[in-house]
Amino acid sequence: MKLENKLDVKVFILYLMNKVDEPLEYTTVNDIVLQDEFVNYFDFALCFSELVDAGQVEECGEENGIKLYTVSESGKESLESYESSLLSVIREHASKSVRRFMAYKREGRRATATVTECGEGYMLKCEIFDRVKKLFSTEIYICEYEEALRAK
């Protein structure tokens, strides 16, 4: 099931961010929103930008030079009005995604993905770390830059 209506995507973003209830980096919001594949990246990027422009998501500081975002009071009011429009199965998946994210964060785990030029293509490197060591690392050669960015 995909969310394709912009209003549904915006409500989904607000719902997830509100469930986390702490300031988040753009990439973290992106990761949480996209992990269950209800929303594609382009719809997410467009709707997130529109939520910021509308004042429903606001910058609330920086951490290591990276902007942090939270749901504004206006965003919470909109969410109250539209939350019931999200199907219960989507709300359930969203809640699981938030719990998974919070557990991941508590354990000090973090994931990175980088794209570097390699000959006539690009190398996508994905790694997962905990507080002490690297838990997983893989590299994939991809011919097209745009494809490498989508995989990232």
Q: Helical stretch count?
A: 6
Q: In whole angstroms, how far apart are the ends?
A: 22 Å
Strand content: 25-35%
What is the global morphology? globular
Report the biggest beta sheet as strand number plus sense, adding barrel if it closes.
3 strands, antiparallel
Mean pLDDT: 88
* Poorly predicted runs: none
Report on the structure:
- It is a single chain.
- The protein has 152 residues and is α+β, with helices and mostly antiparallel strands.
- 48% of the residues lie in helices and 28% in strands.
- The protein has helices spanning 6-20, 26-34, 41-53, 73-82, 88-106, 145-151; strands at 24-25, 57-63, 66-71, 110-118, 121-129, 134-142.
- Strands 1-3-2 form a three-stranded antiparallel beta sheet. Strands 4-5-6 form a three-stranded antiparallel beta sheet.
- Helix 1 crosses helix 3 (41-53), helix 1 (6-20) packs across helix 4 and helix 1 (6-20) packs parallel to helix 5.
- The longest helix is centred in the middle third of the chain and has 19 residues, at 88-106.
